[in-house]
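Hi R.,

Here's the input for the cytidine-5'-triphosphate complex you asked about:
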Amino acid sequence: MNIFAVIVAAGSGERFGGRPKQLAPLSGMPMLAWSVKRLGDRRNITGLVCVVPPRGGDDIRGGLEGFGVGDIDAWPEGGETRQESVRNGLAALPPEATHVLIHDAARPCVTERLISRLTDALRDHDAVVPVTPAVDTLVHVEGDSVDRVVDRSHIAGVQTPQAFELGLIRRAHAAAKDTGTTASDDGSLVLALGERLATVEGERMNIKVTYAEDMAIADAILMLETRE
Ligand code: CTP
Ligand code: MG
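And here is the predicted structure with cytidine-5'-triphosphate in place:
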């Protein structure tokens, strides 16, 4: 197995306040540096590809400088959607890659433990996503009323990184492009092919930074971890 990572960092941060959040300062480093370091430091991950906004590559490379993030193999440009950005990232992987972890720069609190769970699972599965069980009561809302309560015992949230055999995820992305299928993550595209999508336990602390106020939570999580 030759595992590479693709980090997508080509979004424009509309919900964050209309500015790209990848370089926003977080516990002493730009947000993107956390993911790059944590994936790049793993011995069983051979290399990294970082997908950057169109014409934004220099800014990102400059922003990471001085934070000791190590080598990145390629800096492809992203597209209009996350899905397009991932596709460009997959296309930029070197020929020796056999497996890939696809990760959102917007999840800076990814841990070594989670990365290992995913790479271990690749020994038995070709597509693996981390899930966390729903903790809130979940309801179906119609207008401004609750229609019904959803049985949450089989409901989980899905995180990144997500781990795949490279041929399978490339096939899933190509099929999605052909059929015009869109999805908010990559596991969904594997499922759309009718292939098995395995799960590993995700982490409650692996939050996604979507709104500006999420930065305070991510900051607290990273501080707790470094104190451990
Ligand atoms: N992303 C990307 N290319 C896009 C859109 C998103 O690479 N065209 C990346 C983001 O940089 C982020 C991840 O996909 O790391 C998850 O996206 P999200 O949290 O939605 O970030 P943004 O798209 O930047 O935010 P928003 O949707 O609020 O504009
Ligand atoms: Mg988005």
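One thing worth noting: Helices lie at 14-17, 31-40, 57-64, 82-91, 112-121, 166-179, 187-192, 214-227.

Cheers,
M.
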